Amino acid sequence: MGLKTVVYFLPRPPKKVFVKAEELPPAGTLKVKEEFFMVRPSDGHLRILSRRCPHLGCTVNYSSGEDLFICPCHQSRFALTGAYLSGPAKKDLVKIKWEKVEGGIILEIPG
Questions:
Q1: pLDDT > 90? residue 74
Q2: Where is each Rieske domain found (predicted)?
């Protein structure tokens, strides 16, 4: 195995992303971003979920008709909490860590 191969498989550091307070979804809503979903149920608790399917890494979409997340590649389905429901994924969507800071939040998106 060459050095390039070894480097490819090394874990990448997480990416820090700042989200302004005014971009956060109000209670009872959801916002879709390029790499993640921001879900805030009516209880007001904010969840940030990766859009990367745990099966093969395809980008998961939100289905408003079914009110859940669906992977377009193999139809894995996930609840708005990120919990696995059906399909080949067998794992929940990754919950992205975040911390509140002045003016918004900072996300730590896995590499």
A1: yes
A2: 16-107
Token pair 């399909």: residue: 87
Per residue in 33-61, pLDDT tens? Answer: 889 999 988 888 899 999 999 999 999 99
Contact 92, 78 (CB under 8 A): yes
Burial of 48 (0-12, 13-18, 19+ CB in 10 A): buried
Query: Out of 2.60.40.10, 2.102.10.10, 2.10.260.10, 3.40.50.20, which CATH number does the structure's domain 11-109 have?
Result: 2.102.10.10
Every domain of the chain and the residues it spans? 11-109
pTM across the whole model: 0.83
Q: Which two tokens stand for residue 25?
A: 């979804």
Q: Does residue 98 or residue 1 have the better pLDDT?
A: 98
